[in-house]
Amino acid sequence: MTEAAGAGPVGDEPGDEAAGNDGALFDGQEVDEQTAKASGEKRNREQVLIKHKEVQTVQEFAETLEKIAQKLKQEGKFTFVQGAEQVEVAPSDQVKVDVKYKVKGDKHEFEIEFEWSPALKKSGKMSIE
């Protein structure tokens, strides 16, 4: 199973309303099914297992990132919990990391996304200073 987790800012992107009033989506909703049917493609369907947006302070966001990092280091996985719903994220040993920072007017967006699959190969390095 290939999954991706990203950390990004709260935004007013098209489709944000699909998350509902509380900003979360835990229903395993299939995404892009109409596109796949319309093109006649036979491919794996993407399932959104969690979608959540909230406004946080920079300190709160840093604590969230630290907790994810700590869980990955200690257990190799972490779990999103909202109410009775839980979604475990357990990446394989090698992950592909995609970092993006963009600015449009006065809106800044920084994304960290990681994905994995059994056939993932190691690539170039980037450091954080």
UniProtKB/TrEMBL annotation:
Chain spans, region Disordered: 1-46
Top-level taxonomic group: Bacteria
InterPro entries associated with the record: Amphi-Trp_dom
Domain Amphi-Trp: 46-128
Protein name: Amphi-Trp domain-containing protein
Source organism of the structure: Ureibacillus terrenus
Lineage summary: Bacteria, Bacillati, Bacillota, Bacilli, Bacillales
